[in-house]
Each structure stands twice: as C-alpha cells, then as structure tokens.
Amino acid sequence: MMDILQAFDEYESAALAAIDATTSPEQLEQVRVEYLGQKKGKLRDLQSLIGKASKEEKPAVGKRFNEVRTRVGSRLETQLTSMTSRKSAREASFDVTLPGIVPRLGTLHPVTKTIVQFRELMGRFGFEVVEGPELEDERHNFEALNIPDDHPARDPLDNFYIATAAAGSDGPVLLRSQTSTVQIRTMEQQPPPIRIVSLGRVYRPDAVDRTHSCMFHQMEGLMVDRHVTMAHLKTLLTLFARAFLGPDVKIRFRPSFFPFTEPSVEVDMKWGDSWMEIGGAGMVDTNVFRAVGYDPEEVTGFAFGLGIERFCMKHFEVDDIRRFYENDVRFLSQL
Ligand code: FA5
Q1: What is the residue extent of each domain of the chain?
Q2: pLDDT tens-digit profile of 135-160?
Q3: Distance CA 27, CA 15 (A)
Q4: Helix (H) or strand (E) holding 129
Q5: Do 35 and 18 form a contact (C-beta atoms < 8 A)?
Q6: Ligand 1 contact, 186 CB (< 6 A)
Q7: Check whether domain 110-332 has CATH 3.10.20.90, yes or no
Q8: Residue 8: CB within 6 Å of ligand 1?
Q9: Residue of minimum CA distance from atom 19 in ligand 1
Q10: What is the pLDDT of residues 245-278, one digit of tens each?
C-alpha cells in the first residue's frame, strides 16, 4: 500500500508544480490533458493502482485517490481564474486616450547635413558627384599631382602610411591627405570636358585644435574644358559660398602655391574680425594634364578643395571643430 500512496504523492506534487509553472491558458490546457485527461492522462494509470490494493486497504487508497484528483482539479481552476483576471485587469488599466511613448529619432550629423547640401548646390551649378577611395597610392595622392619625391607634403610624418606595398598595388598605400586624388582618377577615366565634385574624408596627422582635426572632410571640384579661366573659378566659389552661407558672407582670394595648380590661391572667409581659411584652388597645372594624358594646348581647367567642417562651423556658428567629433548628443541635437 505504501507504494501506491507514494505514487499518488508523486503524481500530486508533479501535477501541482506543472500547473504553477504555466503562464498561458494554452499551456494550462496541455497540463490538464497530461494529468487529468480521460483517455491518456496520468490519472488513469493512478486509478488502475487502486485495483492492486487489498480489500482492507481499498477504502484508504480510494479516499486518497479522490483527494489527489480534487486537489489537482481545483488548483487547475484557480490557476485559470487568476490568469484570466490578470488579463482583464491589464486590459482595464490600458487607457487608449493617454499619449504614447514617442520614440527618440536621430538626425543627420551636422557635417553630413552640410555634405548633402553641398552636393545639391553643386548639382545646380552643373557639377556631377563622383567618389574616390580613402586608401590611396602615391601616384594619385602625389605624383600625378605634380608633387615630387622630395616635397615636404610627402614626409611620412605628415601622412598616415598604412603599408609600404600592399598586395596588388604598385607601391606604398596611405590614407589620402586630400581629395585632389579624385581629380586624377576622374581624368584618367574620361576625356574632357569635365565638371565634377567629390566629397569625402581625408586624413592628416595635424595637431588637433579649434580649426584642425586629424580626420576631416573636403569637397574637391574640377572643371576642365576649352577656355576655362580663373574668373570662372572665382565666380563659382563666391556664388557657392553665398548660396550656402548667405549673401553677406565675405570671401577673399590670397595668392598661394600648390604643385598641382598654377596660379594658385588660398580662399578665406571673414569670421568676426579675422579671416578663416576655407580652401585652396587654382588653374590646373599643365604637368597634371600631361600626367593623365590630356593636351594642355587643348584644354584649361580649374580645381578647388574646400574644408567642409570650416563651412559647417560658420553655418552653425560653432567655433571649435572638435565639438563635431565628441559625439555629445546634447550638443549635436541643437544644430
Ligand atoms: C589642399 O588640401 C588642396 N588639395 C586644395 C586644392 C585643391 C588646391 C585643388 C588647389 C586645387 P589645404 O591643405 O590648404 O589644400 O586644405 C584645404 C582646406 O582643407 C583648408 O583650407 C581647410 O579649410 C581644410 N583643412 C586643412 N587641414 C585641415 C584640418 N586639419 N582640419 C580641418 N580642416 C582642414
């Protein structure tokens, strides 16, 4: 008899634990079928044990059987009631008239916004947008741009060299230090006339300060055709600056030197009482045309490279370039 009663006890505690562990009416129904089911439920096996008890034992065994069945049955009821009442309590407390939780949407970074606007403005001037790689070889970053081997701009300490010679490349590989590389890539691929801009990241181991970052963005522009002059260049850059920064912006052109343009200028914009350098520009040097197989007797062209962050700083009145790269959402979301 002890064996039978023990089987009843085991059944009872297993059934009660299974009921308590359910979290949905569907699970509860499965437990019901398993333990109380008429056809295959474990209760049937239990019932057959009663027949094995002796005549004297039967009343006690039968009583215990009924007890177990009732307990499991009523625990099942209680569990079902508490599940349904929890659900209706949840439904009753849901107020459809309350405002929802507004998800926090991000926005474009101010530098990205500037890039988007630059592309659109230059598109209106008839310039097509092209892309160039950030990892470059020396031909595109220097040689074809008429920057000789001994030029200080090629000093390894002034550039981020990545590899002395990568697999499949002809020589050392570096992170481009200027977007002028894209001038060469474009002219190598197509004959004149050309009217392109290219916007992207450039890298220089510059000391970081209010106006310098070691990674920043430039917009390169290149126009090559017959009879392109310096007047076109100055007009375009002035109109562009006014279109982006408003009609009152003051731009000046300072004579300068770049190996790949002749003559060359540096472009400044008025900021308070002083001037901020925003780009370099000039007429494409004949050596550059020769390097890409263009005939300098046939075509002329201008090129420019503008610092995108500097425009972005002026546009949003931010006086420190580092703010753009600190990832402080409290600051960025104000712009
Ligand atoms: C150049 O990079 C030339 N490739 C520009 C050029 C293109 C000249 C085509 C002629 C023809 P420069 O080193 O001056 O030039 O850089 C151009 C602009 O990038 C600067 O005027 C400045 O606005 C921005 N710039 C330069 N260094 C930094 C820096 N470390 N951080 C942020 N902006 C910078």
Answers
A1: 2-93, 110-332
A2: 999 999 999 999 999 999 999 889 99
A3: 13
A4: strand 128-129
A5: yes
A6: no
A7: no
A8: no
A9: 307
A10: 999 999 999 999 999 999 999 999 999 999 999 9
